[in-house]
Amino acid sequence: MRSLKGMVGVLVIVVLVLLMGISPSVASNPNELVVYHWWTAGGEKEAVHALFKAFLKHYPHAKIVENPVAGGGGGIMRSQIKAMIMAGNPPDTFQITYGKGMIKSFASVLQPIDSLLVNFDVPKEVIEWGTVDGHMYGVPINIMQNNCLWYNEKLVHKLGIHMPIKSVDEFLSVCEKIRKEGYVPLAVGAGMGQKFWLGTLFETIMLAVPDGGAKVLKKYYAGKLDVTKSRAFKEALEVLRKLVVKKLVNSDFSALTWDQAADLMASGRAVFYVMGDWAKGHFTSMKLKPNVDFGYQSFPGTEGIFLGHSDCFVLPKGVKKKLAKDWLKFLTTAEAETAFCPIKGATPPRLDAPVKGIYDSMSIAILKKFRNPKVVKVLSQFGAPPESYLDVFGTAFSKFFQNPVVNDKQLNMFKAAYEEVFGY
Amino acid sequence: MKRKRESFLFISPAVILVALFVYGFITWTFNVSLTNWKDIGIYGRFIGFRNYERLIFQDATFHTALINTLKLSVMFIGITVPLGLFLAVLLDLDIKGKRLFRLLFLLPLSFSFVASASMWTWMFSPEGGAINTILKSVGLGWLTQPWITSESQSIMCIAIAYIWQFSGFATLVYYAGITAVPPEIREAARIDGANTFQLYWKVIVPLQKPATLTVLAMLLMYTLRAFDLVWLMTGGGPGTSSEVLSTFMFRTTFNRNHFGYGAAIGIFMFLLSLAIIFPFFKKLRGGRYD
Amino acid sequence: MIRLPSSLPVKEGKVSSMTLIYVVLIVAAVFYVLPIYTAVNTSLKDSKELMWGPVSVVHKPTLLNYVKAFGIIKRPMWNSVVITIFATIFSSFLGAVSGFGFSKLRFKGSDTIFLMIVLGFYIAPQSILIPLVRFIGKMGLYNTYGGLILTHTAYGMPITTLLFKNFFETLPTEIIESAQIDGCSNIMAFFRIALPLSLPGFAVVAIFQFTNIWNEYLFGLILTRGVNSQPLTVAIANLKGTTVASWNLQMAGVLLSVLPVLVMYVLFLKLIVKGLLMGSVKG
User: Fold this and answer.
1) End-to-end CA distance of chain A
2) Chain A residues inside the 8 Å CB shell of C243
């Protein structure tokens, strides 16, 4: 009996030891590139895989260990990265949104990569967007426009609305007309924890209001605006207030995800929708045709402004692998951008990236806007302000939507939020 | 002496693992909570208990989160315990399909939080959601509510989702407890003239005290540190109306990068659990049950 | 001694109370099953139908999502099966050992130690995430099954110890003592007498642990890297996408992931019933 027990005990220990080693080890392999990103499904997955494939063509001995992590618009992946960095175990490279504020939140654990950006032919604003204390830390791989107004073509024709709409005031009065006809004028989705989409709506409107515009938004995201005194800020809040109080948005916006709100517009229950240009990919994945089923214009009053948003890859401190640097260098090429952007539905950052026959007409319209030197380019909330802006102001806007009054109490609430993000 | 050594041998796995994974790690967190560590890579300096001061006396969101956590706990436990007991009693009766019902009641446990959060958000959505749609279609449209989009109802919706997800455990534990009641006791009650209702109400249910303690211990764990469903269903919203302590802590630490302050919240949560569990478990000391 | 059935029939003739009971059970069953309708409904839709929302009934159901989802999650599902089974067995067994110790082999101060162990059950995972990652990394267990198994076993100790201590409390000490008179050591008493009698308790503990570990997300996310070692929960969270929204794929994955758990439940439930029948033979 005793020996039987002993045998069982030994067996258990053996199994245990075996198990420990059963999985892939984490030993740093110079031919392996450990990549973290949040493009986990559908078209976005295809795009990043195409990018990997293009990279591996140049480095056939290399292997990519990818770690896609969905959730929170990238927030979950960033949480995981932080935990790993603090545990002394950073990946070789990871994705974050490109921008001064976001990068600065990570800069102390990243290596500057200025030397890798030789001959990176992009608009100067793009470089300026991502420079922190004089250095570049990330390579932007795609450019997206955020100040887009999408609309249901069939409904617009049915209701006799003339597109494009030229100003915020016109937009509001059109919305009121739509509401009387029994449709939802503007679809909004900020539910299931993703309150920051309210910030996308806000920043787009802040560009459009009379005292607003690109300069003010830049100042706002640089932490230099006094929100209690800024006319632009108040005007933007006023517009949001009208949207809620006059029931110009769907009442269940705090329960819908961004895509479910997009579906309201796609299925003909709502007319308008404000979202970055990946919404285009969402619509086409449901077999909707651009300019037939859905239309696009820059948000009324922001024709000459490109509210940009970009994803980049960075190089964590402590990563010495040459392959990681090769990866980042590859991302600066037109070849990489052309492998990734068409499938992703985004604009390539490089001014010399080929266009003809590669992008559809709606993408080209957006791309042309980006490349037009007369169009003012300003960076959105996903890159310009510090990372905490997304969560702090997402909550603040959510509170405002529940109690849409523009008074001192609310303004002080925003001021406290602003100080939390930029101050102390 | 030999007895004590043997005792040590038996309890050592629990002691060693918990000492390291719980107390060892929480000490690290405590140390961090005494600093103003804000932003990765730039470790903070020692600031004593200032994080705690700010938390307890100045942070309105913290107060909201604390109240919400308690609200959630009361709703969740207040309903799940009687529900579990009730269903376990029903399962004990000789009914057809007992096996199927048993499995159905355990079914929600097999769903991961990602699933439950989505399913219940789709139930509680005021426009296209299942509950309001069903109410409208049977002519009860006047009963429709804003549910998860309302600041006053959001925490209740989350409580319902938790009840759905975990009441199976309560039912299971009570079921094991009830079926373990020796047949002699049932016989004796019958002989004394008890009908079925009295059998359960006066005899079997009161014997479930140990099961109740177990159920309470389990359920308290889920509510005091409730995170996944809250985070995925509402993210603490609308506004901060459904923010609970653990979402507040996660957000502070990982979304806002205030590692020191977040650590203080974590320690507070641990102490709160201690304060709630301690009197509760005093009952288990010297634990003989009557 | 004649064994009496442990459940007694409801008073015959009271048809209305029987019906009432069935009604209540069915209402409860509906409550438990209704939300699942939205998941099943969504899983059968193609991308185009998604735009009508999760509640509107699918017009052209397709099983394609299940096929696609399975292809993606089959390796993570296997990872979860291995990790969960081993962590459940270890934490349950070690819990039984510790619970026995705290219950039958008390000494001065053992109750206080017990309390401190139980308290460990209430620790929020986010608050120890970083030191945990550090430790697992230093042990060379990062991104291995062993790392997750060890983690889940450790954090399962408080509840398994508690449940088993409670369970052994209901076991009369006389049984142990009489065995000791017969020359049994405590260790043998545990393995030969206490453990077999604790099977129904073991089944409850196992179901609880299995569920918790199978559905756990945060540790699984942080301690693994890539599809070869990540658990199912992480893979399912990824099925929906970030700038895309493939709910149909995700719901198909979710429903697939429920199957192994249900299988476990059926097995464990049988174990509970068996154990209870065993336990009712006394004397």
Assistant:
1) 69
2) 39, 43-44, 278, 281-282, 344
Q: Does the beta-carbon distance from B122 to C29 stay under 8 Å? A: no
Q: What is the DSSP letter of C9?
A: P
Chain B segment 49-68 residues within 8 A of C by beta carbon are none
* Residues forming beta bridges with residue A272, ordered by sequence position: A151, A186
CB C283, CB C172: distance < 8 Å:
no
Closest chain A residue by Cα to residue C82 = A19
For the cut 70, the answer to whether the pLDDT of residue C65 exceeds it is: yes
Instruction: Please give the mean pLDDT across all residues of chain A.
Output: 92
CB within 8 Å: A252 and B234:
no
Asked if A42 is an interface residue toward chain C (Cβ–Cβ < 8 A), one would say yes
Among A123-127, A195-199, A201-205, C239-243, where is mean pLDDT lowest? C239-243
The class that CATH gives domain C64-278 is mainly alpha
Range from A28-32, A33-37, B123-127 carrying the lowest mean pLDDT: A28-32
- Contacts with A400 (C-beta within 8 Å, 6 or more apart), sequence order: A237, A240, A410, A413, A414
CB C46 within 8 A of CB C64: yes
| H/E segment holding residue A298 | strand A294-298
What's the CA gap between A391 and A396, in Å, rounded?
9
Q: Interface pTM (ipTM) of the complex? A: 0.89
Backbone angles phi, psi at A120, to 5 degrees: -95, 90
Tell me, yes or no, if B5 comes closer than 8 A to chain C by beta carbon. no
The alpha-helical segments, DSSP class H, found in A196-256 are 197-208, 214-221, 231-245
| pLDDT one-digit tens code per residue, C158-209 | 999 988 888 888 777 777 777 777 777 777 777 777 777 777 778 888 888 9
Contact present, A41 and C209 (Cβ < 8 Å): no
Q: In this complex, do A75 and B232 lie within 8 Å of one another by their Cβ atoms?
A: no
CATH of B47-284, picked from 3.90.1150.10, 3.40.630.30, 3.90.180.10, 1.10.3720.10, is 1.10.3720.10
| Model pLDDT for residues A242-256, shown as the tens digit of each residue | 999 999 999 999 999
